């Protein structure tokens, strides 16, 4: 049962909206007959979880989750516990706060990354206020390949709210991590998320920089001088592919600098144009072999790809 409770905790804290997955957990034989005692155990790892109380998930999600649990209790024909009834009625009285809330990603027994996010696809004229699938995918790959980032200066393009950078700072020991995004709103939320996850800022070297890909100059690239460039879900708009590829070319000022770009393939044509544009600009790429997805819960309806991009020197 504990393994299942751990999964339910992970689903809830990360604000996973896969109803089929949630119901499959509640309907698992290990939880039969979903009596009051088991309901209490579920509440203790979700809405009563100390992390939830300190950094609550969006109200709309808590309503959705408790409704799923309540419906399953009814289907089992079990008695609804007083605590479940109270938790559900209490949350129904709370007004939703524009889809904002905290998402907490349990990486291992010692590390949980908590981020304030906005679950709207586009909020405040940007898509950068939530964590996308490719950020999870590249984060997990980086944890498995720490040596690529140790003692390196890393620049992330389109950092969003910070999952990838925070994980690399916690697990990979870079010399410096430079978060960048074009949106003031994103940078503001990113800075807040860094403070949530690092109580002692003296142990990490970071910079938050507003960066417009089309405006990056040779001089700015020399100042940044990255060893590794990272990006997740930044290849989604055909109109920005040219400026992204141009930025990658300019930023590879040091011999040996490479980029790792992870993408959710929503439109194969957009991805094809990106790879085509890399070739035209003199950049080479390799498809990085896919890895087992074990740390995060993913939306399996999407294909995720990771590319290593570099300049070849003769």
From TrEMBL:
Q: What keywords does the record list, in alphabetical order?
A: Methyltransferase, Transferase
Pfam families in UniProt: FAM86, Methyltransf_16
One BP term from GO = methylation
Domain (FAM86 N-terminal) ranges: 4-91
* Annotated GO CC locations: protein-containing complex
What molecular function does GO assign, one term?
methyltransferase activity
Tell me which domain of life the UniProt entry assigns to the organism this sequence originates from: Eukaryota
Cite the InterPro entries for this sequence.
Answer: FAM86_N, Methyltransf_16, SAM-dependent_MTases_sf
Family membership, please give it.
Belongs to the class I-like SAM-binding methyltransferase superfamily. EEF2KMT family.
The cross-references to PANTHER family, in alphabetical order and at most eight, read: HEPATOCELLULAR CARCINOMA-ASSOCIATED ANTIGEN, PROTEIN-LYSINE N-METHYLTRANSFERASE EEF2KMT
Name of the protein this chain belongs to: Protein-lysine N-methyltransferase EEF2KMT
In its UniProt entry, the species of origin is given as Araneus ventricosus (Orbweaver spider)
The gene from which this protein is expressed is EEF2KMT
């Amino acid at each position: 049962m504990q393994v299942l409770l751990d999964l339910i905790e992970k689903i809830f804290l990360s604000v996973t909206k896969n109803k089929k997955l949630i119901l499959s957990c509640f309907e698992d034989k290990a939880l039969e007959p979903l009596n009051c005692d088991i309901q209490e155990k579920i509440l203790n790892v979700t809405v009563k979880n100390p992390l939830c109380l300190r950094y609550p998930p969006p109200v709309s999600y808590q309503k959705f989750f408790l409704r799923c649990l309540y419906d399953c209790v009814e289907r089992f024909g079990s008695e609804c516990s007083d605590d479940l009834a109270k938790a559900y009625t209490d949350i129904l009285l709370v007004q939703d706060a524009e889809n904002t809330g905290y998402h907490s990603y349990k990486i291992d027994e010692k590390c949980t990354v908590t981020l304030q996010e906005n679950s709207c696809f586009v909020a405040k004229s940007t898509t950068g206020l939530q964590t996308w699938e490719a950020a999870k995918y590249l984060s997990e790959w980086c944890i498995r390949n720490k040596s690529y980032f140790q003692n390196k200066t890393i620049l992330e393009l389109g950092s969003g709210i910070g999952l990838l950078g925070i994980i690399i700072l916690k697990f990979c020991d870079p010399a410096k991590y430079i978060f960048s995004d074009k949106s003031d709103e994103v940078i503001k939320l990113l800075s807040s998320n860094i403070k949530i996850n690092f109580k002692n800022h003296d142990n990490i070297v970071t910079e938050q920089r507003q960066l417009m890909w089309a405006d990056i100059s040779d001089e700015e690239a020399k100042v940044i001088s990255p060893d590794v460039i990272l990006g997740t879900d930044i290849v989604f708009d055909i109109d920005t592919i040219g400026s992204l590829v141009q930025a990658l070319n300019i930023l590879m000022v040091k011999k040996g600098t490479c980029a790792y770009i992870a993408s959710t393939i929503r439109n194969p044509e957009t991805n094809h144009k990106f790879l085509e544009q890399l070739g035209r600009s003199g950049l080479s790429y390799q498809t990085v072999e896919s890895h087992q997805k074990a740390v995060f819960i993913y939306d399996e309806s999407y294909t995720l790809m990771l590319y290593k991009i570099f300049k070849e020197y003769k």
